[in-house]
C-alpha cells in the first residue's frame, strides 16, 4: 500500500476459482469516484470473454484483516453477476486514514480475504446454499434478521387462521359434512407444489439473508422428513435428488458437508423438536391429524419466541450449534404453517366456494324451473 501513489492506481488479486467460475478481487485505493475512501469489489475474471446471457448469483463476504481480529471489517452481499454487471462491491468500503488503525501491517501491506459461494439461479425448492463454516459465520451476523423473517410469517398466518369466526365456522361445517375419503384427499398436497410456493415467498433476490433463509428451510424440510415414518429411506432419496439437482450449480463442498453431517446429530435434533403437524409420504405432504383440529393447534400453540426466554449458556461452537438448531426449528414450523395454510385456505376453502357456487347455481335452476312451471299452469287455466 505504501507504494500506491497514483490516483488512478488499481490493485487486482490473482484469479481464483469458486463454484466452477473464476473470480478476482479489485481494489481502488484512491479512485472509483470517492477519492477519500478505499473501494473494494469482487469481479468475474475475463469478463470480456463471457457469453451473452451468462449470469450467476453469488453470496460473498470480503474481509479487511486487522491485527486485532475483533476490529477486522467484514462486508457481505448477494449479487447477480452478468456480462454487464461483472463486478460488485463497495465504493466507500473504508476511509483511507482508518487503514492505519491496524489494517496496514509493519510491511506496509493490507490483507484482504474473500469468501464466495455461487448460488443457484433456477430455484424450485429450498436448497443448501452454504457450506457449514460459512453458514455459521453468517448466522453470527444475521441471526437477529433471519429469526424475525420466520416469526413474522408464522404470526401473520396464525392471525389469518384466527380471524373471521363466521368464516371458519362455515368451513368447519363444510369439512364435517365431507366423507372420510374426501377429507384424506384434501389433507394432502404434492411436495413440488408447496416447495415452489415456499421459494417464491421467501427467496428474495439480492437480499443478503435469502441464502440463510433457504439454507435453514432446506434443513427444516429434512427435519420434517426425519420425523416421518420412513425417515431414513426418504431422507436418502431427497439427499440424492438434491445432489442430482444441484451438482451443476453448487460448489461440491456444500454437498460434501451434507454427506458428512453426523447422522446421530440429525436424529438427536429431531427428538428435541415439538410434535409435527405435517408428515412426508413419498412425494406428498400429509397432515397428521384432522385439518380443523390442527388449525386449532396452530392457533393455540405458542410460537418459538413465546415459549419462554431463550437463555444462552453455551459459548463458541456449542452456542453456534444451538443457534442453528433454533433456526432449523423455526424453519420447520414455518414450513408446517405454510402447508396447513395452503391446504385450509386453498384446497378446503376452494372446495367450499365451489360447493357454494354449485348450490347457488342449482338454486337458480330450480327457481327458473318453478317459474316456467307456474307460467305453464297459468296458460293451462286460460
TrEMBL record:
InterPro entries: MATH/TRAF_dom (IPR002083), TRAF-like (IPR008974), TRAF1A/B (IPR055327). Pfam families: MATH_2 (PF22486). Residues 1-116 form the MATH domain. Gene3D superfamilies: Apoptosis, Tumor Necrosis Factor Receptor Associated Protein 2, Chain A. SUPFAM superfamilies: TRAF domain-like. PANTHER family: TNF RECEPTOR-ASSOCIATED FACTOR HOMOLOG 1A (PTHR47477). This is MATH domain-containing protein. It comes from Brassica carinata.
